[in-house]
UniProtKB/TrEMBL annotation:
The keyword Flavoprotein applies. It comes from Deinococcus lacus. This is NAD(P)/FAD-dependent oxidoreductase. Its cofactor is FAD. The keyword Oxidoreductase applies.
Amino acid sequence: MKTLILGAGYGGMAAATALKPTPNLDVLLIDRLPYHTYYTRLHEAAAHGTAVTEPIEPLLSGTGVEFEQAEIAEVDLDAREVRLKDGRVMDFQKLVISLGSTTNFYGIEGLKENATELKEVVHAEALFDWVNRAFTPDYSGSRTIVIGGGGLTGIELVTELAQRSEELSYKFGMPKLKLVVVEAAPVILPIVNEKLRAKSMEILQDYGVEVLTGHKLTKATPDGVTVQGPDGGTREIGAGKIVWTGGIKARDLVKGEMIKFGVGGRIPVDRYLRAQGYPDVFVIGDMASIIPEGGKPVPSTAQHAGQQGRLTAENLMRFMRQEDLVPYEPYTQGEFISLGGLMAAGWMGLPGGYRLALTGAAAHAMKRASEWRWRQSLR
């Protein structure tokens, strides 16, 4: 059975590395890059130049999965074809779509042209280079960084940058960078619990980060941004660097007459993570719209993408053994936010539905442990 896995992010890699050689199951993983990126650590790459990638092919040893580096141009579910940008066309019998997301700029004037994203290693490297340049004697531009978006990515990035700024300020005897977070919602980290949010705000204040909640970024230029406050008034903020982390949308690469795309271009799936109307097509990670019966949408996080990928691998092997498929039952093991250096905050699940709240070095250790578990799962 010819099976393609599209994308080597958290979902795709979880699916590929959870597979075992299975009779008549022929699997090819396709990604445009030769390495897997630990996206949950891109903020560390941006602030400290941390290495956050690992070659894909060695991770596939023993799985029976082959790898091909290529870029997807279009996925036609009705024709059962995947078209590559080099002109080749690949057919499939089973398909796993895990192509991730792109940045959603929401049509904000000048934002796409003037803001740095934080979706790839190249974005992190560009920001790392700028921060280092801002602490050189010949740098004469603005030393303010405006971060649009006070969600998980934005807060982890700004606290790591604040910590790096303190290090470089002490090393070179120069003023620290000015850091500003602009968040349209009334609070930062709107999807986390109140205690975790309050601890995060406390850390931001200690770092001297200016946080503008209830403010919409309405325009970006090479010299800064315009924001609109809760009262409708506007304010100009000069900036040497603008970073946008304020939203994502599914990659617009998939077409099929029976698909009715959900919020953010995501593809609705059934309880087995199969695209509605296409029982041979699994959709996982940021591309999938997963709403359990009577529940809330499953968030687009690395841990949930990993769960979905492993389940999809199990169901592909079950199909070949003519066994019943296993439905997806999402669960959250914990939630940790990096807050710069050895500081973090979050919670971990305990038996009986209890949660253990952790802050500081203990939370940092748990976050590192979860990352270590992910690395080990790929092996």
